[in-house]
Amino acid sequence: MGIDRRKFLKAVAAAGGAGLVGKSKLARGVEHFTGYPDRLGVLTDLTRCVGCRTCEAACNEVNKLPPPKIPFDDQSVFEKTRRTSERAYTVVNRYPNPKPGGPPIYVKHQCRHCDEPACASACLVAAFTKTPEGAVSYNEGVCVGCRYCMTACPFYVPAYEYNDPFSPEIKKCTMCYDTRISKGGIPACVEACPMEAMTFGKRSDLIRVARKRILEHPDKYTDHIYGENEVGGTSWLYISGVPFEKLGFATDLGTKPYPELTRGFLSMVPGVLVIWPALLGGFYMFTQHRELMDEEEEEIIEEKEN
Amino acid sequence: MAEYAERRPAIQSWVRERIFLGLSIKEYLRGLIKPFNIVAAIIILIGLPFVVMRFTQGLGAVTHASQDQPWGLFLGWGLFTGVPLAATGYIMASAVYLFGLKDYHSLVRPAVLTGFIGYLFAVIFLLFDLGRPWRLPYPMTVSFGTTSVLFLVGWHVALYLSTQFVEFCPAVFEWIGSDRFRRWALGVTIGATIFGVILSTLHQSALGALFLLAPGKLHPLWYSEYIPVFFFISSIFAGLSMAIAESTVSRRALRGRTDRMDPVRAANFDRLTIGLGRAAALVLLTYFCLKWVGVAHGNHWDLLNTSWGHWFLAEVFGFVLAPCFLFAYGVRNRSARLIRFTAFFTILGVAVNRLTVSMIALNWKLPHREFFHFRELILVITIITVEILVYRWIVNRLPVHREHPDYGGAH
Ligand code: SF4
Ligand code: SF4
Questions:
Q1: Are A148 and B210 inside 8 Å of each other by CB?
Q2: What HEC string does chain B produce?
Q3: What pTM value is reported for the model?
Q4: Does domain B34-395 have CATH number 1.20.1630.10?
Q5: Of the residues A104, A145, B95, B237, which has the fewest C-beta atoms closer than 10 A?
């Protein structure tokens, strides 16, 4: 792995003060970034999902994950709310329908492939990249295993291989970037779903599709596309028949992209680097001078006494 | 060869004087059999298998780190608590060199050493905690995550570790007996001190800024836009308290060893302790007020009457306001003893705060989190033991609590 000099200098400057760096056009979020125009995404329609877990099985297969503790056709798995882990990049959870007598609602959960990912802005070795295709991909070749990305992700997605001593990795949904999308395919879960609960396509088109469905069936959907604006927008979108806060979705995340949360702090750094030395140096001079004056005074007093 | 043979006795006596405290190896080894060393040896023997386990079976074997709790004691204690405690180096150095409080001169070297060892062991804790510790230099050499606050922290800890080493160099060269290098090292002290203060203000607050990325995941009573300021201000009283604690412990450990601790200095500690206590009381009061500004800013008054709120109140009143009063009371009554006690108490309070932020109140919405594994605790105790041994080894040899006889009063 070669280190090119320009990149290194840039990093040195950034270590001193991130704000000194030339504006990066990367989606890692130095600049406000309106997003790659043709980025892809997935729209999940929760009114269609029946909780069959075919998507989980497909994901397990394409990513060569270990067999699940509870088989994919076993409904007892819904007794607990699950989270993604290093063994399951996607999980389907069941929630009771708040409408009396309504069927339970199933929610598929996985990485949202944020437009301005918190994980990417957190990573100290830039292991995450928002690809122009929309997937947020992870490079295990540089990851040091600090797990700050896990702390940062607002959706509690990245998982770590704690039991691997020699090559532990962060594990999360890849949107099948390497395995399928880059070869022109579509994500395995989307393809596998028998209910067509998920639609894969250009994010801008998906938002149009979602809007249309909500508009045509106002009785069936709540008027909210989850992920359109949350944390600055995500590639994975949801529409639902019941309010999202009833389905374990965080509705207090705001629309501010996460990288902005630390931008203020990082941009203060160069200021400190400039002001502090002057200020502290000034103090030092002042102190020195005061001592000098004290000495002189003492001398004068001594002389007088003599 | 002949030349070497001639020099051999000289080298031997050098080693004997400087490493073995002027004893023969046999005498030295016999002298090691003391209760303190035996306890330390037992702790290390218990810890060693777990060290092996950590590096052969992974983090999962020794910690309760999980998908719900990414950070455990290695970071919660080693980094998030260790670094503010090590702030003592920059606090004392800037007090004396920049603000001209020459009275405290005798505390600078111990403080710089405490700071240096503190950072060194923060890095060692990091090596235990990182999934791939051998990639520690990656953020400086291979791949640069310039948008990351942690990237800033990484660089700064590395730079500051080197800076503190430079600040401590005069003592090292006095010990080695190299006049030329010592003068050179003294010459750069002011520069290093200023550089160190800059780095410290930045990364002490950056440790807090790490959590800016976790709104909604860190409990709102602790999450605040001001968290970098909280971390910075608390590093000041943490550093002041550590200076008191260090002089207390060293004075006790070196009692009667006038060759290792200057008795004039030791006698002066009480006076300095009171001065440090006064400063700590003031900073604690500022911090106490700021914490409420944080609550008011987020308008989280309603959360105070929840179990999280009670913990918050316990922390803010029990570990901030109480020590503040104790310090003030001790200053008023000129009771160095009370101030010494309060210093240890404050250190505990800083640990409580950092563990709360990095472990307890983080991911507070997730149910069923395990705090830490007993093996993790044993490892932490083992590493702290080694840390103390290293510190003691140095204090027993280098001119830390005394002037070097050849350079008395020179700096
Ligand atoms: S959901 Fe989490 S892991 Fe996925 S891109 Fe967003 S921040 Fe990263
Ligand atoms: S664990 Fe790896 S991917 Fe996550 S922030 Fe740390 S270095 Fe980056």
A1: yes
A2: CHHHHHHHHHHHHHHHHHCCCCCCHHHHHHHHCCHHHHHHHHHHHHHHHHHHHHHHHCHHHHCCCCCCCCCCHHHHHHHCCHHHHCCHHHHHHHHHHHCCCHHHHHHHHHHHHHHHHHHHHHHHHHHHHCCCHHHCCHHHHCCCCCCCHHHHHHHHHHHHHHHHHHHHHHHHHHHHCCHHHHHHHHHCHHHHHHHHHHHHHHHHHHHHHHHHHCECCECCCCCCCCHHHHHHHHHHHHHHHHHHHHHHHHHHHCCCCCCCECHHHHHHHHHHHHHHHHHHHHHHHHHHHHHHHHHHHHCCHHHHHCHHHHHHHHHHHHHHHHHHHHHHHHHHCCCHHHHHHHHHHHHHHHHHHHHHHHHHCECCCCCCCCCCCHHHHHHHHHHHHHHHHHHHHHHCCCCCECCCHHHCCCC
A3: 0.90
A4: yes
A5: A104
